[in-house]
Amino acid sequence: MEMKTLRHPQLDDPLQRALLREIESGLPLVARPYAEIGRRLGMSEAEVISRMRRLLASGVLKRLGIVVRHRKLGYLANAMVVWDVPDDQVDRIGRLLGRMPCVTLSYRRPRRLPDWPYNLFTMIHGQDREAVRAHVERLVRDFGLQDIPHEILFSRRSFRQRGARYFSLVSDNERNRDQTGRIR
Amino acid sequence: MNEDAPLTPEEYRLISQYQQGLPLEPHPFARMAEQLRTSEDWVIETLHRLQEEGVVSRIGPVVRPNSIGVSTLVAMRVPPERLEEVAELVNRHPEVNHNYEREHEYNLWFVVTAPDEAHLQRTLAAIREETGLPMLDLPMLEDYFIDLGFPLSWK
Question: What is the pLDDT of residues A37-52, one digit of tens each?
Fold first, then answer.
C-alpha cells in the first residue's frame, strides 16, 4: 500500500489521544476552555495547556485557531487544479505552489493510469471563476509551467464541508484501551 | 445565512488575526479581547454566533494529515442523473468529510478519513458496493502546504 500511515509518536500517549479527541470538533466557547477540557478529562488546566503546546510543537497540529468556511466569506469559486508533473520535479513545484497566497493546499497523490495522469493537486480559491483562472495563468507564467499539463476542476456544489473527525470513528475497543477514566 | 453577508470590520479582524495562534493560556478569549481592544464577552458571543451562522466551522485544531488516522481523496464518475442520489449514499458514511461536485468527467470528489487503513478500505468497499460505481483512490503521498489559515488578506 502506498499510503503513508505514520502515527506520530506523540499519539502513543493515550492521554494525548484523549485530548485530541476532546478538542477535534472545537474548543468550548467559555471563558476558560482549557479548564473545561481538563475537567472532562480529569486533567488540570495547566496540563491541558502544556499538552496542547506539545501537540503544536511536534507538528501533530498544523495550527490552532478559528477555522472558517470560505464559501460563507465570499470566496465562492474554488477550484482543484491538478498537474501532471515529471516525478523528479514534483517536490520542487509542489513546494513553490504551496507557498503562494492563492493556493490553500498542495499535495502529491498517485497517478492512476490510464484514467488519471495527474500527480500534483492544488486548491485555489477566488471570489469568482475569473479570479481563479487569472491566478492559475499567473502561476503558469511565473513558474514556467507551460509544458506541464494541468486541468482546472471548478466545484459546483458542496454536499458536505467539515473538518476530519478521526476519533469519533475510533472503535469502542480502542476507546476502552485509553486510560483516561472517561469514555464518551 | 446569506452567502454574501460581509463581516463587520471587527469580526473580520477577529477572524483574520486568530486563524492560528489561539492563546494557550487560562483566559484565551480575554487575551484576544485585550489585543483587539474589545471585551471577552464580545469575543465569545461573536465566535458563538459566527459558528451558528456557519461562517466559522470551529475554534480548534487543524490536524496534520495522516498524523492520527489515514485518509484518501476519492473521485467518481457519476452519471449526472444519479449525482444527488450517489452524493447522499456517500454522505451516509461518517468517514466522509468534504464532498463536492466538480465540473469534470470525474464529477464527485470526497475525502474519506478513518482511524486505520483497514477501516478506510472497508469504507471504500462499502461505497463501491452501494453505488455500483468504480472509484479513483488517491491517497496523499506528500504534503507541500504549510497551513496558516485561510488567506483573508489578499481579497
Answer: 999 999 999 999 999 9
Q: Which range (A29-38, A70-79, B50-59, B104-113) has the least confidence? A: A70-79
Local confidence band at A105 (pLDDT 50, 70, 90 cut-offs):
confident
Q: Which residues of A touch B138 (CB under 8 A)?
A: 109-110, 112, 116, 121
Are B155 and A69 in contact by the 8 Å Cβ rule? The answer is no
Identify the CATH number of the domain defined by range A70-154: 3.30.70.920
Contacts (Cβ under 8 Å, ≥6 apart) of A133 = A152
Other Cβ atoms within 10 Å of A156 Cβ, number: 12
Place of cell 489585543: B35
The torsion angles phi and psi of A119, rounded to 5 degrees, stand at -120, -5
Rg (CA), chain B: 19
Answer whether residue A178 shows pLDDT above 50. Answer: no
The verdict on B40 and B86 lying in the same domain is no
pLDDT for res B153: 52
CA distance B63 to A55: 9
| Residue appearing with cell numbers 470526497 | B110
Residue of B18, B66, B70, B100 for testing the chain A interface, max A β-carbons within 10 Å: B100
Q: Where are the domains of chain A?
A: 9-65+162-175, 70-154
In a mutagenesis test of the A interface, which of B24, B35, B55, B63 is the best target, namely the one with the most A β-carbons within 10 Å? B63
ipTM entry: 0.74
Task: Name residue, grid cell 464518475.
Answer: B77
Class of domain A9-65+162-175: mainly alpha
The string of DSSP letters for A1-43 reads --S--PPPGGGGSHHHHHHHHHHTT----SS-HHHHHHHHHT-
